[in-house]
Amino acid sequence: MYYLRLVSEEVYLLDTHVPELISCNNLKQNAFGIIESNNRPRFKISWQSTMMIPKINYLSDNIIAIGIDQYFAVVDLENQKELFHIILDSFFMKTAVYSHFIYVVCQLSIYKINRQSLILNSEIGLPDIPKKTIINENELVIVFEDSQIPSLSIVQNS
User: Fold this and answer.
1) Model pTM score
2) Which of these, 25, 45, 115, 142, has the minimum number of CB atoms within 10 Å of its CB?
3) Do residues 44 and 34 make contact, with C-beta atoms less than 8 angstroms apart?
4) Which pairing describes strands 55-58 and 139-144: parallel, antiparallel, or unpaired?
5) Where are the alpha helices (DSSP H) in the chain?
6) Helix, strand, coil percentages in the chain from 3-state DSSP, rounded to 5
7) Where are the domains of the chain?
8) Cα(55)–Cα(45) distance, rounded to whole angstroms?
């Protein structure tokens, strides 16, 4: 099991033996945390927004997907290795995980990533900012802020 422990900037900077996962050196980082599993620090992360915390999804026992601000990554906690990352074109909102694909929902687009190969399969541009994202067993539904725009439905085949 993992958990995200929020820490001060001082603690973050002192933990030099823990690999850094998310850091945008050109931006002012305002929030800091350490991802831990089995009572051991695995990665430290920093991000810009103090109003949000990173969203983490399990892909398997030791593999997680994590998104915050304009960053998304898939990491191996046990081996402390980043397996995939992408700098997003707009702010991260949610991750939907299905058997074959990972969908990263942002304000302006959806990224479709092959779950096995961790290769970016496609990017779907959105006509408006999502108001609500509904994740069902085999369907991802995006409802937009502008009610004149029909909802977008992405159906998963087993």
Assistant:
1) 0.89
2) 25
3) yes
4) unpaired
5) 9-14
6) 5, 55, 40
7) 1-87, 88-158
8) 12
